[in-house]
Amino acid sequence: MQIEKQFSVTGINKPAVLANIARALADEKVNIKALIITDSKGSDVMRMVVDKPDVARVLLSKFDSPVTEANVISVDIPNRPGAFAALAEKLSRSHISIESAYCTAGGPAGKAIAIFQVPYIEQAKKVMLEAMNRKPEKLIPNMRAPQGRR
After folding, report:
1. How many whole angstroms separate alpha carbon 65 and alpha carbon 70?
2. For 42, 49, 94, 137, which has the most beta carbons within 10 A of its beta carbon?
3. Has residue 148 been placed in a domain?
4. pTM metric for this prediction
5. Which of these, 117, 20, 108, lies nearest to 64 by C-alpha position?
6. End-to-end alpha carbon distance in the chain
7. Residues 87 and 125 in one domain
8. pLDDT tens digits, residue range 81-140?
9. How many domains does the chain have?
10. Which domain range does residue 19 map to?
11. What is the CATH number of the domain that holds 8?
12. Where are the beta strands (DSSP E) in the chain?
């Protein structure tokens, strides 16, 4: 679990904008770790987390689309039903609102990446870490506890 930089780019629902952004990142060997594109009442937004935020910041500034940045929590979760829900519920029980969230469909070793944008990032990180370190097998169904944690 770590705090990462999320870039939000608006106005990408035009021909070639997404392709051009993706190509610019690829050409500079910037890997997109998580990505979501939403369209709400004509206001399209692409949110993404990358492995080289400093490079991405420079590249994104060259496009004609407004870009904002926010700190988000990135957490590896098992790619199975209930994993994302368990973390969202834990934040809810701690009265931490989720401003935006999304996750990857899966990756190496059956893992997915969940991204949470919350107003109190350090508090949310602490809540999730405590929950995962106590009894991760109860927090996330079918998740094995680390050795010595049962």
Report:
1. 16
2. 49
3. no
4. 0.81
5. 20
6. 21
7. yes
8. 888 898 999 999 999 999 999 998 776 678 889 999 999 999 999 998 887 776 545 555
9. 2
10. 2-68
11. 3.30.2130.10
12. 2-10, 32-40, 43-50, 67-78, 100-103, 111-117
